[in-house]
Amino acid sequence: MEPVRAPLENEEYHAALFTVRRAKNCLWWTIVLSLVIQMAVFVSVRFIGVIDEAPQLAGIASVNDKQTTTAPVKVLDEETAGPAWMWYEVLKWALPVTKFAALVSGALLVLTMLTAVQLSLVGRTGGVAGFIGGFFWSLLLLVFLIPWQQIIGSSLTCGALYNFNDLIDWTRRMVWNAKDATTVSKILYYDRFIGYPVFVALLSLVVQMKFIRGWRRASLSIMQSDLREPADQNDKL
Question: Where are the domains of the chain?
């Protein structure tokens, strides 16, 4: 019975790795789509001006400012604002949802990569180098996804994800009330809402490539093991 067990074990480990791969793909796409949505929101607010006339902006002030009214130049009431009022309400909920989805997916992605490492080690399926590399890169990805600006409360450290209030405050100071904005602050503004998410998206791509490398080696090793097993049985006969 011993010769029959190896192919069955290989099939079980391969099925388990296939499940891990599907989970990893779902989590990875959730992170990427969340980052894309957040960048799209920034582009809509900064360059298209979808909320420039939203009445909700009236009276919004920065925590670092003593001004009582820091809204854009033109703020209308709810009836005349039109789509701006609706866009404000949609984006106000879209950003927290995408931030929560990306953060949870990042944490689960770390556990998924760790599961792939354990399966490759226990089942001796191969590809452990790629899986371990993907695991450590996923840890780094999670670090950049964590909103440190809310945990630590410092403007010097921040994550790639942000809330609607962060976007409003930065845009108010850099665009709507831009007379005091310096060139350096504008560079940091675009880097915060475009450069940082793009960097994290590229980081997630590294995790994907590392996993693909481990998956290919594991699949090849299992296939070769299945092909060798009938030949070993014939030799014993």
Answer: 2-50+93-232
Whose CA is closest to 218, among 110, 131, 115, 109? 131
Q: Give 157's pLDDT tier (boundaries 50, 70, 90).
A: confident
Which candidate, 139, 116, 122, places its Cα nearest to that of 213?
116
Burial group, residue 61, by CB count within 10 angstroms (0-12, 13-18, 19+): middle
- Three-class SS state of 54: coil
What is the distance between the alpha carbons of residues 131 and 141, in angstroms, rounded to a whole number?
Answer: 15
Tell me the average pLDDT of the chain: 82
- Stretch (H or E) spanning 155: none
Cβ–Cβ under 8 Å, residues 211 and 131? yes
Give the pLDDT band (50/70/90) at residue 131: very high
Is 87 within 8 Å of 81 (Cβ atoms)? no
State the Cα–Cα distance between residues 77 and 90, nearest whole angstrom.
17
Query: Rounded to an integer, what is the distance from CA 35 to the centroid of its chain?
Result: 6
* Sign of the Cα pseudo-torsion (66, 72, 74, 75, in order): negative
Residues with Cβ < 8 Å from 146, sequence gap 6 or more?
Answer: 103, 159
User: Is residue 110 within 8 Å of 142, Cβ to Cβ?
Assistant: yes
Summarize the confidence of residues 148-177 as an average pLDDT.
85
Distance CA 141, CA 199 (A): 10
